[in-house]
Specification:
The complex is a heterodimer of chains A (about 250) and B (about 375).
Chain A (H helix, E strand, L loop, with lengths): L11 H5 L3 H6 L8 H5 L1 H5 L4 H9 L3 H8 L12 H5 L6 H14 L12 H15 L18 H8 L1 H7 L17 H13 L2 H19 L10 H8 L11
Helix pairs in contact in A: 5-8, 6-8, 9-12, 9-13
Chain B lengths: L2 H9 L10 E4 L2 H6 L1 H14 L4 E2 L9 H5 L5 H17 L4 E4 L2 H16 L1 H15 L8 E4 H7 L1 H7 L14 E5 L2 H4 L15 H8 L3 E2 L14 H4 L4 H15 L6 E4 L3 H17 L12 E3 H8 L17 H7 L34 H4 L11
Helix pairs in contact in B: 3-15, 5-7, 6-7, 8-11, 13-14
The chains are: A mainly alpha (about 250), B alpha/beta (about 375).
């Protein structure tokens, strides 16, 4: 298990090397820029995956730290188009995953606008996985928060039991089927896995580091999903991330 | 090139796909947004094709979206997946059938990781045993459910009363096939046709008589991007990616879009609605959108299942334009009714995007149209 790090004296390159995705993701970048040409994120954000590969390849711990506190590493959509196209079998997408994981376990994620969003990830799908056994749970998705769902979503929500019955399933039933209630002993096993592998400690760490940042920013912080800090990190777009004319 | 050489070259783009005795694991996204797609897949596999597909209600999320939102550590995800393998072994099954593309990509990534780093597999075994007392076996065969439909496509086509042919013109329907990124981008040799020439959906379309549309942004991501959709501040990324695809495919006048990832049909469906609300722009004919289907829905439609049992009323972009073109017999008045005819009311109409049979009156009035109605 990769440990949580609070010390300032860290060799960030060495830490990256402990992550198998970093080992698999970097075989020697030749700076051709193919990854950047194919990258959907590079088209939308001020983002260049080639620079990511170039930076970590320097093995310079200070430069890697700069990445860990930046918005840059949070722009990738992890579609892995870069992996397919790289003529040297690098995968900047995997490097990003290793960098993000390191940014979280060093607490440096709270230093950037996009990185701070990790608290939302923890409080939504992180907790939904443990509570329901699903990454997503439609009852947690409101139309106010997801207006893209359209009017059909509200109609579905008013008729879920009967709709599922029409599809030959029981909504929140105990038999095999879509959105069945995951049995309590299965949820218990899931929680134990999260405990043994360090995910619960990581969740607590994300909470603690976020609380510290909220205090520093003077924003109200509580366990509620709608506290001021969460509202800000969930909704704020400072307008500095995207290419011009998008 | 000699035929032998060609065969050797194309072998890289083939994969072994089991044909029976599956252990089925569901998709979080599909269960939430297109639950009937999984149900109808199981139904035609079991009832129409006579296959054995087993599932255990105690299987859970693979944590894939959490993993790709970088909040669930890799060790945790590997151990959760190892638990699914344990359930499969418990059921005496060896062939894993995966509903989700994120899961399929992740299962592939994990198996490849273990192959390259046996000590990581060993560590996962320790974690799983410590947490649950369970042990596991690696699947004999790993396939995405769309691989299985591909494998059985000719059998499906032979039993299908409907084909992807426009009943008004007699011409093949134009199909956009959209492959989920994690199907083969990471590990091309694990997908039919690899990442360069993915044939998993095109094969089904060919068997059903449709015509594939090749358009510039054919291989562009739908824009899920995990955190790029989950967090409201980032959602413009997701919408922009889908819009780029719509704008690119529009000149080719596709009759439908078919996808194999659970997330892609959701985004390609809902973002069409959003573009219509934001800009008054619609991409289909007669003020409709371009209908978006999952491969299970399309196969079931061709096999003659009732569109409303397939769950097409769960889509924001209406399927009716395609149903009419294919000459499918359906009752439009049953779209919003329950199994026993209970009336659920109707969803509100969007401001611009036409839904149901609106705008299709000229086709409905044609005597070639095979709609059946109680009224």
């Amino acid at each position: 298990m990769l440990s949580l790090i609070e010390s300032m004296e860290v060799d960030y390159y060495k830490e990256l090397g402990l992550d198998v995705r970093f080992v698999e993701g970097l075989t020697g970048c030749i700076h051709c820029g193919t990854c950047t040409a194919i990258c959907p994120a590079a088209e939308f954000y001020n983002y260049d995956p080639r620079i990511i590969a170039e930076t970590v390849q320097t093995r310079d711990s200070d430069k890697i730290r700069e990445l860990l506190i930046s918005d840059t590493i949070w722009y990738c959509g992890e579609c892995m188009s870069c992996k397919t196209r790289c003529p040297r079998n690098n995968a900047p997408g995997l490097l990003i995953m290793a960098l993000r994981a390191l940014s979280v376990r060093t607490g440096l994620f709270t230093e950037s606008e996009k990185g701070r969003q990790q608290l939302v990830m923890k409080r939504t799908m992180g907790e939904w996985i443990l509570k329901y056994g699903y990454c997503l749970y439609r009852e947690e998705m409101t139309i106010e928060d997801h207006p893209e769902q359209g009017p059909t979503w509200e109609w579905q929500n008013n008729n879920l039991d009967k709709l599922f019955e029409r599809f030959g399933a029981k909504y929140r039933g105990s038999e095999p089927g879509p959105l069945r209630e995951i049995p309590p002993d299965a949820l218990q096993e899931l929680r134990k896995i999260f405990d043994v592998t360090g995910a619960l400690d990581l969740f607590d760490f994300i909470e603690r580091k976020s609380a510290e940042k909220a205090k520093e920013m003077g924003l109200e912080f509580s366990e509620k999903l709608d506290c001021k800090y969460v509202n800000q990190i969930y909704n704020l777009d400072s307008g500095t991330h995207t290419k011009e004319n998008i | 090139m000699k035929i032998e050489g060609k065969k050797r070259l194309w072998q890289e783009y083939q994969k072994e796909i089991a044909t029976d005795n599956f252990f089925y694991v569901r998709s979080c996204v599909r269960q939430n947004f297109f639950p009937a797609a999984e149900q109808i897949f199981l139904r035609f596999m079991r009832e129409t094709l006579g296959k054995s597909v087993y599932e255990n209600p105690a299987h859970t999320t693979c944590t894939g979206i959490g993993y790709h939102c970088d909040v669930v550590p890799f060790n945790t995800t590997m151990t959760v997946v190892a638990r699914q393998f344990s359930l499969m072994a418990e059921a005496g099954c060896e062939n894993l059938a995966v509903s989700c593309i994120t899961s399929f990509g992740l299962y592939t990534e994990i198996l490849e990781t273990w192959r390259h780093f046996p000590e990581i597999e060993e560590k996962t075994r320790e974690y799983l045993y410590k947490a649950t007392g369970r042990e596991f076996r690696i699947p004999g065969n790993l396939a995405h459910a769309s691989d299985i439909v591909y494998k059985l496509r000719n059998e499906i086509a032979a039993k299908a009363p409907y084909r992807l042919v426009n009943q008004f013109t007699g011409r093949p329907l134009r199909v956009v096939e959209h492959i989920g990124c994690h199907y083969s981008r990471m590990f091309p040799h694990k997908g039919i046709g690899g990442a360069e020439y993915p044939y998993v959906l095109a094969g089904l379309v060919d068997s059903l008589g449709g015509e594939i549309v090749d358009y510039p942004e054919r291989r562009h991501c739908c824009g899920f991007g995990f955190r790029q959709y989950v967090v409201r501040a980032n959602r413009g990324y997701s919408l922009s990616c889908s819009k780029k695809k719509f704008d690119s495919m529009e000149p080719y006048k596709p009759d439908l879009i078919i996808t194999n990832c659970p997330g892609c049909p959701y985004f390609l469906d809902r973002w069409q609605y959003v573009v219509s609300e934001m800009q008054g722009k619609t991409y289909g004919e007669n003020g409709h959108g371009i209908p978006v289907f999952t491969y299970e829905e399309l196969a079931a439609l061709a096999l003659g299942f009732d569109p409303w049992d397939i769950g097409l009323q769960m889509h924001q972009v209406s399927a009716e334009p395609l149903l009419v073109k294919m000459g499918i017999a359906f009752d439009p008045d049953k779209k919003y009714l329950g199994r026993n005819g209970e009336n659920f009311g109707r969803p509100e109409k969007p401001h611009f995007l036409k839904i149901d049979l609106d705008g299709l009156e000229h086709q409905v009035n044609s005597n070639q149209y095979s709609v059946t109605s109680n009224q």
